[in-house]
Amino acid sequence: MADTVFGKIVRGEVPCHKVYEDDKVLAFLDINPLSHGHTLVVPKEPAETLEHLSDESAAALGRVLPRLCRAVVAVTGVKEYNVLENNGTGAHQAIAHVHFHIIPKPNGREGLGIGWPLTTLDPKAGATLAAKIAGAVS
């Protein structure tokens, strides 16, 4: 297990407010929440970024994320929320262990704030890029 705070939480060396655990996934409240109910979901497998995570752990995360979202919505009463996962420091990843945030968005001020600078995809370049990415899927 990686020596990150999340690795230490998974190993039980650092306490957390646990909301879910199975053999592959642990979910707990964020200690610096953006809003009430902000929950972190981590694989127990140590992987710094998503592309390094095994398909098995990724599938386990995919199975539990919707259930955790439903639970956060039910408990907070907030029907709008973000699910966020960052990869690498340039993409705002602060802890080098794959983790998803479930962040309730109760009003226009609390929760995650996002800037989304749109560009336009050239159709020809898009077709070429899509074919390259499709060819790289293994």
Describe this structure in words.
With 138 residues, the protein is an alpha+beta fold. It has a single domain (5-136), classed as HIT family, subunit A. Helices cover 30% and strands 17% of the residues. The protein has three helices and five strands, in the order H-E-E-E-H-E-E-H. It has helices at 5-10, 55-76, 123-136, and strands spanning 18-21, 25-29, 39-43, 81-84, 100-104. It is globular. The model has no long low-confidence stretch (mean pLDDT 95).
Keywords:
HIT family, subunit A; about 140 residues; 3 helices
Helix and strand content put the structural class at alpha+beta
Q: Could you name the CATH homologous superfamily?
A: HIT-like
Low-confidence stretches: none
Radius of gyration over all CA atoms, rounded: 17 Å
- Helical content, roughly? 25-40%
- At CATH's second level, what is the architecture? 2-Layer Sandwich
CATH class assignment: Alpha Beta
For the report, how would you describe the main beta sheet? 5 strands, antiparallel
- CATH fold field value: HIT family, subunit A
Give the topology string: H per helix, E per strand: HEEEHEEH
For the secondary structure, the number of strands is 5
Beta strand %: 15-25%
Q: Strands of the largest sheet, in order across it?
A: 1-2-3-5-4
Provide mean pLDDT, rounded.
95
Shape: globular
Brief summary of the model shown:
Strands 1-2-3-5-4 form a 5-stranded antiparallel β-sheet, covered by helices on one side. Helices cover 30% and strands 17% of the residues.
